[in-house]
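Renewal narrative, Specific Aim 1. Our central claim is that a sequence can be written position by position from structural information alone. The example that follows is taken directly from our test logs and has not been curated for this report. It begins with the structure tokens describing the chain, in the order in which they were read.
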């Protein structure tokens, strides 16, 4: 015996509309979930400072690319990139200036220690620039993360008074 499905067509069409609406609704929810902001930059400070996003270490170019949509964070990252480049160059110059007299001395020649002292100054400058890079990059990461959280960085402003031999300063960090 054959069953006549023609009587059920209006009911099937009604259910099909509900099924299509449910599928479209679930699809929209998945799009909303895909746009959730888990793109925060994590700053890990060990022997050196590491910037991580989604389990991957970020290079300077990666930090710039990630923060390009946030003008304040991008400006900080550009400052950090300048410091990073200068730190790298001064470190290379300082290493070469220190290494040349040391190599000359090991080879039995007469080393010019003034070049080594100049190299040590370049290395010191490189360390200071690296510190400045880390400050600007960390500040840029915090600005990026606070923009992802709707402007709530979780940190408040702090004022501290720093006294060292020869100078005193009042610092305000926000």
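The sequence written for that structure reads:
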């Amino acid at each position: 015996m054959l069953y006549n499905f023609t009587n059920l067509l209006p009911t099937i069409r009604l259910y099909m509309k509900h099924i299509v609406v449910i599928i479209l609704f679930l699809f929209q929810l998945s799009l909303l979930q895909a746009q959730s902001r888990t793109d925060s930059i994590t700053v890990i400070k060990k022997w050196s400072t590491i910037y991580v996003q989604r389990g991957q270490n970020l290079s300077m170019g990666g930090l710039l690319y990630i923060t390009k949509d946030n003008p304040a964070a991008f400006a900080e990252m550009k400052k950090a990139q300048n410091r990073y480049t200068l730190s790298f160059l001064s470190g290379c110059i300082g290493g070469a200036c220190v290494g040349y007299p040391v190599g000359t001395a090991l080879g039995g020649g007469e080393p010019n220690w003034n070049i080594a002292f100049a190299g040590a100054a370049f290395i010191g400058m490189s360390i200071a620039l690296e510190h400045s890079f880390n400050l600007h990059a960390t500040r840029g990461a915090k600005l990026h993360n606070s923009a992802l959280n709707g402007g709530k960085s979780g940190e408040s402003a702090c004022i501290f008074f720093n006294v060292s031999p020869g100078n005193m300063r009042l610092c305000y960090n926000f």
